[in-house]
Amino acid sequence: MTEKHSKYYLLDTNILLHEPLAFLNFEEHNVIIPMVVLEELDNIKDRNKDVSREARVAIRSLEDALKDATPEQILEGVPLSNMQGAHHAQGTLAIFPDYALKQTEAVLNLSENDHRIIQSALELQKKFKDSKVVLVTKDINMRLKAKGAGVKYVEDYRTDQLIDDIRYLSKGFVEIEGDFWAKVGDVESAQEGRETFHEVDRTILPSAFRNQYVIDESETFAAKVVSYDNEVVRLHDLGYDRMMSYKAWGIQPKNIYQAMAMNALLDPTIDLVILTGPAGSGKTLLALAAALEMVVEQGIYEKIIVTRNTPEIAESIGYLPGTEEEKMAPWLAAITDSLEVLHKHDESMESSMNYIMNKANIQLKSLNFMRGRSIQNAIVILDESQNLTASQLKTIITRCGTGTKIICSGNLAQIDSYYLTAVTSGLTYIVERFKDYPGSATVNLNGVVRSNLAQYAEENL
Hints:
It is built from 15 helices and 18 strands. The protein is of the alpha/beta class. A hairpin with a 3-residue loop joins strand 11 and strand 12.
């Protein structure tokens, strides 16, 4: 491994599990994989878990990059520019022989894999004194240990991180201070059937994107961005009072944020709806009510598929008894809770729920069985999606065929994954990636409507 470039990136196993082709995303810099990482990938690849697929893809990709190299070249560094595919990697890929490290009193216990990777970084740091050696890992505790052991540069994998602070995440709407019309000078309005459209100066909404909602503090104006150019923004006037009167399966919005969500959910031209917000803001209830409305009452879609990741990060539904749907029932209690709310005033709630489950063809599915499917004419509700990576969400979204609408909901303050944070969550990634796509809409549901207790807990705990 010669000092051809200024930086050397040493990758932890979880980077390749997070994104199997991650080693191609470091542009002109050198990438080094410790031997222990290959050992861990080998141990994971045969498990009956979703993450095993990522391990197998990573192993095959590494083999493609190194297959024609000699052992000496692999230790020295193989040019990644020779690897086919759509990438911009111009650096080299090398394997570091960490098995040659010797245990002394001065180093970490090398019987642990994490310690072998950290010690590899320390050895490379000594070897390339004039270059920057960076250990890249998604394990927060490992980053702390590496810093404590003397590794100068330790980073999270940020290639798929589109924002630096969750405060900058798109909310899907813009709230104008005061009265919207007081800030508008020239405006061109047009009537198309029952709908009204306005064209306002772009300076009023400089960061506008398609399907972004516009509201004001006066609670009289509500609109949605239809299109824009460098000069003007075209708005569809939805009307504040009209939005607040929406109804789906007996549910009406309790605030303007729920009204915006309901507008997006009930619009068949929008294929992807992303709902973010705190616990108790109504994400799951609104999604299910809108889905029932469009399947049972309007007949736009044929079925409802409900899925979410299990606590093991979508790896297994385990040995719970019963069919797939019976196994998934404990993880999808939020859906059955919402169904109970929607039918609590019925004469026989249990009979109503069973009838609706059959009438709307509601299917409870595991993420494990979504891969490879082609879902047609359905509404897919992906609950608790904040715990999924970008690649896992891509797997689900790409399953959606003709006439399918997908609803992704999640609370970025409740991430259970070991390696994800609010800014690296797949939910954050798709919010930013799809925010200007004409067939998608994002709404952040501000405010807790579950109960005063839930609201106080959200604000003060």
